[in-house]
């Protein structure tokens, strides 16, 4: 009885720690990637997307965010897995698909980018709306947790160890000076990269240091 | 007990592009609650006079009727009597500096020397700051040069006034209209064009007293109005790498007062300085809310009074719209009557600031000249030597004007140079060949020059192809493209053509069928690609994966014994030179994708369209050589690149001679000269400037036309028949004098029409 009680207590402590950790729910969550049929349909879709992205640069800087994608693809429910040929033809994509194609576009431009996962704070009212919308489309709501959501984007390497975080679904760079609380704020980020950055301190994002491969909570 | 601080604050305009006065007042009231703050304004239509934080309002008559001498005396009395003055208006600050050239301890605005050092666009005083200045050109330059500047910067340029106001000028006609409007508003021809910098706007606000920097903060715009003005922002400390040189700058300028450096941060993180304002910005109170009360620091420095501590409410601020009660002493004036037949009420500049600009200009024309590459003397476009020789070969007594003049040696030299360049750019692997676009000018003399110089003939119809054949081209030297290339029926060459480019998938299918039936023979068959990011009606669209997939499938249907090519044309003169080169790179990426997906080698590239002559003939040959290299690297199977510079060959090859019919002199030196030429001969007048000459009736000397107040009115009874605006006819010009419009050999000639000739 004594041991069982201790285990129960330990379990409660861990749960409490997890509850306090905004990213815990998505600890083992992989970032999104588009699937490929291995056939011409997906080849054409991918080539079109990458050539179109370069065209849309209009001579602008290669480090510019591909805002045109958000104009073409609204943000909304997406059933996974999704293939290239399907994704590029759709009117609506979720943040995972937005981020995946933005990541591919950056890479095709020759700039270094990494998949990035975010946890953001919104409000129960907002998440209730999204929950309903996703459920109506019969799509998983795993990304919603009360007033907090899981989101995806891209980390763009702009210097030796400096990154900018592109929110492909919003069409903006996330503000590194933002407060780590409040509606729309970024609570945590995980950048999927391998290697030593910043002499082991990780990526520099504004005043923050973010170690690759691990959730960084603000 | 210390005497009550009295502060006069101006610039209370609170419209969509607000002045900082109300923000300054709010900040001062927070820091010095018992001070007496008086709002200064020049129109009772300015809503800031009703702000509750003002103890009093000192309302002056608008600047256009204000007696500046009396007013200056009153201001001297005020500041001499111990009152402080913080100006919230650039032009007022300039006027104050003209009254107090060396400043005054109570005038919290910069001295004249400092203002002269921050004149835009060059902002010499900010040279030490870690910022770049966007490329600019003074409008003192000739129209020819200004057009070149716009092309070089992809028509993403701003025409800016000497004080404020800026107009985006995406085309020549818009530029001309904006130049007229800005010149009128600010009473000066001295404007400048500046290249647009894409990025995020941020500012540094500073406060300084007698050359000592008291404080500075950085603000990034986080929300903007439709005019691009701040609506919300975040405020932070200025980083040391900026602050240290800023401190030196303030010292060097002996700055007093507020100031704002307006900048753009580009995608690579570089800062570009747009301008420096000699006053606090309108978001000044946003910084106060973030704990940085810079107006308070200024008053503290001037008086020694200790302000109440600033409380930081957070780093971010935003604006809201507030209704406030109107002061009883300043009831609202009636709304002016709309101009008859006009839409809306013209309400800009209620305090008459443009009038102040004009008065400042009159009192001291050199007070704030646009410093830069202009010296106020208008430069005239150079006329090439060959053109002068060509003009010399005509007996104008025998020329019945209006008449196009063939510039024989000019044309010969252009075709020869283009041919030689193509030869130089060719390598063992890739032949570069120039195409002459027949539609730019189907004059047989030009087609013959093209033939003699080894060009291909680029035709958009079978009629044009027939014309090329008549002049001597062989069918295998003809390229056929465009949506109407099969018109008219019955003129299809029976022998093999060099290339046919299809404008749609249906067109490509028809070609495949025509090849199979033997109805058409062509060494190359290809596709014209429609640029996906710039509107065009030509070529096969790529704007969706579905259309791209259809294109891929169609190309696969091409017979394997026919060489495949891709055609890309976009008028570089319209989209800009750098933009054209980006399109070229972009098209290469599409080509590579098409090659990969169709497994068809691209053997011929046809690229070009609508180049302005100078951009080709005097352009950077290395750029073209690199393009050939790049094309070869991306598309290793390319054997031939046809470069079709469009109007660049034809435009300089003809001029239009016309005569003055009548000169009508109006008020204010405005002149209307009626000429026998018209827009029927110069339909491209609206799209680019022409170099113009007048032949002196007495000496026969050729005199270039400068910019001035004369409009050349065409002979047609059409309201828009104005062939040149804002030129200056040389002294002594009279009816019967000969005028020459150079650069009329392209679409002016080929699109000219018969009108008003009976």
Number of helices of chain B: 22
Question: What is the count of β-strands of chain B?
Answer: 30
Level-2 CATH architecture of chain A? Roll
Biggest sheet statistics of chain A: 7 strands, antiparallel
State Rg of chain A: 19 Å
Q: Would you identify the regions of chain A where 5 or more consecutive residues have pLDDT less than 50?
A: none
Quote the beta fraction of chain A. 15-25%
- Summarize the amount of helix of chain A as a percent range: 25-40%
Beginning-to-end CA distance, first to last residue of chain A: 40 Å
In percent terms, what proportion of residues of chain B is strand? Answer: 15-25%
Average pLDDT of chain A, rounded to a whole number, is 91
Which structural category do the helix and sheet elements of chain B fall into?
alpha/beta
Brief write-up:
The complex is a heterodimer of chains A (218) and B (758). By secondary structure, chain A is an alpha+beta fold.
Provide the fold topology.
The complex is a heterodimer of chains A (218) and B (758).
Chain A: H1 2-20, H2 40-56, H3 67-72, E1 74-75, H4 84-89, E2 92-93, H5 95-109, E3 113-121, H6 124-136, E4 144-145, E5 148-157, E6 163-167, E7 172-173, E8 186-191, E9 203-205, E10 208-210, E11 216-217
Helix pairs in contact in A: 2-5
Chain B: E1 6-10, H1 21-31, E2 36-41, E3 56-59, H2 68-80, E4 84-86, H3 90-99, H4 112-117, E5 136-138, H5 143-152, E6 157-160, E7 166-168, H6 172-186, E8 192-195, E9 200-209, E10 212-224, E11 230-237, H7 240-253, E12 257-265, E13 271-277, H8 284-289, H9 294-303, E14 316-318, H10 353-363, H11 385-392, E15 403-406, H12 408-425, E16 431-437, H13 444-452, E17 456-459, H14 462-471, E18 478-480, E19 497-502, H15 505-517, E20 522-528, H16 545-556, E21 563-569, H17 572-575, H18 577-598, E22 602-608, H19 613-617, H20 621-634, E23 640-644, H21 647-650, E24 654-665, E25 671-675, E26 692-695, E27 702-704, E28 706-713, E29 722-728, E30 738-741, H22 747-750
Parallel strand pairs in B: 1-2, 1-4, 2-3, 16-17, 16-23, 17-18, 18-19, 19-20, 20-21, 21-22, 22-23, 25-28
Antiparallel strand pairs in B: 5-8, 6-7, 6-8, 9-10, 9-12, 10-11, 11-14, 12-13, 15-24, 24-25, 24-30, 26-27, 26-30, 28-29
Helix pairs in contact in B: 1-9, 3-10, 11-12, 18-20
